[in-house]
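Subject — a protein and its fold
Fields — amino acid sequence, structure tokens
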Amino acid sequence: MNKRIITIIIALAAICSGASAQPKNAYCPSPFNRGAGKMAVVDTTRIRVWYAFNADDVKDENTYIDHQRLDIGKRVTKYYSEFLFRSDSLIVEWKKAHPGAEAVPGFLGNGGKKQDKWSEYEYSDLFISNGKLTEYATMPMWLGKYNAYYTEPYPLQQWTMGTETQDILGHRCQKATCHWRGRDFVAWFAPDIPVKAGPWKFGGLPGLILKLQDTAGIYRFEAVQISSKPSPIYKYDFKAYRASTREKVWKMQKTFNENWFKAADYHKASVDAAGNVVMGEAVSKFTPYEPLEKE
């Protein structure tokens, strides 16, 4: 990879920023954009659910790591970022209003906490159809050449039913637990919404999962809105994404979270007396990472 020459201001800003708790690493920047506007309709929703992902306050999306959507159609189920979809829509409108612009904004609208930081749980689009799940994984800034997709059998969890209940969005939800890909999870599902779906890759219960978290408290999803109004389900043009496997994509995402600087071949920089940017030593900064899927 070619060496990156970064201005001293950017370098110092990145290096001096403090480490953050997962799932958004303080050192891992978001990509500039995802080619907003290149979409096709693949189905129509029967149910759409919005989830707060790792929210400090579910009533305030400014405190979310991400605002996410679950679109359940007749043929296709999609899980993706509401923040990114909203930004992409605003960018399309911006481009129409500025046809001669030399540059396009990388992000518009509210992005919650740490909106300039990348997370694979925000920058992945999941499609479930015919018993298979396909993840289209968008990688962090300067690592777009690793954008990839893979398909695997829909990974249904093996649930143990509980007797406890709690009310979420007016629905009486029942507790269920499972151990899946290295973590223990607790889910709350609504039997009166008889669809076997939920946030991220979770499903298989006799009702829609409205709340889910791992027992370590690192990853949390909670439904904040449900709609039965029919709406189009879109799919981006992912032709440039290369075919891969879940194992390879998982390893890349883990590597980029742990040391984005090294993966991106990031270098310190300085400005000489003549005002020229001079490339300095390579930066490597390891950050411990706890992925949702540990294996």
